[in-house]
Amino acid sequence: MSRKEMDWANIGFAYHKTDKRYVSNFKDGAWDAGTITEDATIVMSEDAGVLHYAQEVFEGLKAYETEDGHIVTFRPDLNAERMVDSAKRLEMPPFPKDRFLDAVEQVVKANADWVPPYGSGATLYIRPVMFATGNVIGVKPADEYQFRIFVTPVGPYFKGGAKPIVVKISDFDRAAPHGTGNIKAGLNYAMSLHAIVTAHEEGFAENVYLDAQSRTYIEETGGANIIFVDADGNLVVPKSFTDSILPSITRRSIVEVAQKYLGLKVDQRPVKLSEVHEFKEMGLCGTAAVISPVGMINDHGKEIAFASGMEQMGPVIQKLYDTLTGIQMGHIEAPAGWVHQIL
Ligand code: PLP
Ligand code: COI
Questions:
Q1: How confident is residue 77, by pLDDT bands cut at 50, 70 and 90?
Q2: What is the spatial distance between Cα 130 and Cα 95, in angstroms, rounded to a whole number?
Q3: Were 170 and a residue from 207, 257, 312, 314 both cysteine, which residue would form a disulfide, CB within 3.0 to 4.6 Å?
Q4: Per-residue pLDDT reduced to its tens digit, 309-333
Q5: Mean pLDDT, range 100-129, rounded to an integer
Q6: How many CA atoms lie within 13 A of 54 on its CB side?
Q7: What fold, for 165-328?
Q8: Which residues line ligand 1 (CB under 6 A)?
Q9: Do domains 8-154 and 165-328 have the same CATH topology?
């Protein structure tokens, strides 16, 4: 192995073109054998379904170097399953779970030199993506697709790393009730672009979306699920009654870590915006966000400040963060099947 030399502490969350990617194409009703290629570009028809009717789904997971020098991924089976669910919802042919796992392994091995060193604060982000390449002009699913996985080394998603951020309550909606908010489709993120540009211009790091039906309940942010800590030190996790929150793998893992490693009570239920001021801590969780602390919510000028403040993570979120990342980086024993060794 001859590791790339990068300024790992300062690479940010950005695309760096790495050496190899995995590509498989779907045609005549079947996925081909798939291959590793150096070609980072895609040539397709002007009439490809993805360009017109947004038939595209993706995933995000990470490869880590552990303390003892192995390269591992975290619960990739759940990404494979979620991508199957996403594909089915958009009438795309699912990429088989075993082939997804094999493809992740091939791409990470082929780009092992790009895995940031243990302790650097950076990780290798893995981006599986699937889109319609076949021609469509009337509104219908295409009959040809491409599945691709590329990787890029990344640093923290939010500038400042573990420093608490300020988020705003958005007036835009991310996902319709019973729409596509519960799958990882690019169209959900297109919906959020104007809202995130607006939030950034106003000085906020992210948007908190409320349920689109009643505008009463907390759903999630543009790129992460939300967790709260209540006055008794228990975890409170917003649940959507219109099924419009993405089932975050990080959040599902945090719930287990909270219960099994930290002995916390976990309450997964609809959470009203009007009760948020009673909570002590708030965090955003996801593959990219890991667990990012929130110090304050701005609700149309009204500031909801958490007791944990703007300088550091609150104590419960810190424990969750240390335990989760300890499991991912291999210095805390993981539940069976969570950590998948590649090298
Ligand atoms: N919510 C949204 C909208 C996301 O884009 C992501 C990122 O994947 C998450 C939540 C977190 O999901 P996960 O923990 O599976 O990465
Ligand atoms: C991830 O966390 O993997 C995502 O896809 C979120 C995105 C905002 C980068």
A1: very high
A2: 9
A3: 207
A4: 999 999 999 999 999 999 999 999 9
A5: 97
A6: 11
A7: D-amino Acid Aminotransferase; Chain A, domain 2 (3.20.10)
A8: 60, 220, 223-225, 246, 248-251, 286-287
A9: no
Distance 302 CA to ligand 1 centre (A): 27
pLDDT score recorded for residue 328: 95
Atom of ligand 2 nearest to the CA of 289: 2
For ligand 2, atom 5: residue with the closest CA: 60
Domain ranges in the chain are: 8-154, 165-328
Yes or no: say if 109 and 343 are a contact pair by the CB < 8 Å rule. Answer: yes
Inform me whether the pLDDT recorded for 253 exceeds 90. Answer: yes
User: Where in 273-315 does DSSP place strands (E)?
Assistant: 281-286, 290-299, 302-305
Q: 8-154 maps to which CATH number?
A: 3.30.470.10
Burial string for 110-124 (b: 16+ CB within 10 Å, else e) reads bbbebbbebebebbb
Q: What DSSP string runs through 159-211?
A: TTTTS-EEEEE-SS-SS-TTSSTTS-BHHHHHHHHHHHHHHHHTT-SEEEEEP
Residue 278's SS3 state is helix
pLDDT in tens, 197-239: 999 999 999 999 999 999 999 999 999 999 999 999 999 999 9
Q: For residue 30, how many other CB atoms are within 10 A of its CB?
A: 8
| The Cα angle at residue 117 between residues 112 and 120, in degrees rounded to 5 | 145
The dihedral through the CA atoms of 193, 199, 201, 205 has a sign that is negative
Catalytic residue set? 184
Residues at CB less than 6 angstroms from ligand 2: 60, 223, 286-288
The one-character DSSP state at 113 is G
- CA 38 to ligand 1 centroid distance, Å: 28
**What is the model's pTM?**
0.98
Could you say which ligand is closest to the alpha carbon of residue 76?
1
Nearest ligand, CA 60: 2
